[in-house]
Design brief:
alpha+beta, 4 helices, 2 strands, about 30% helix, globular
């Protein structure tokens, strides 16, 4: 945060850093995938998707994203919260 503030930014986003904490309710396998990506143990490729909640979100590319990519648009996604379930 200090680096981007020193460069002139007024805001910085660090949300991903908190996803691997014990306070975050995401699946432990996804937490491990994030850690593995940050340590070069798996691909760090990400993409925007609507497959989780219907709203755009950035996610690590995984089998779920690849398998359901055909449904990754507003016309074919079920409404939230069914989609999230």
């Amino acid at each position: 945060i200090k680096v981007v503030q020193t460069a002139g930014a007024q805001l910085a986003q660090v949300g991903t850093a908190f996803l691997t904490t014990d306070k975050c309710a995401i699946n432990d396998r996804y937490k491990q995938a994030l850690l593995d990506a940050s340590h070069g143990k798996r691909s760090a490729e990400t993409r925007l998707t609507r497959l989780f909640s219907g709203k755009p979100a950035r996610a690590l590319v995984n089998d779920y994203l690849r398998d359901f990519t055909a449904f990754d648009n507003g016309a074919t996604l079920p409404p939230y919260p069914q989609l999230n379930a």
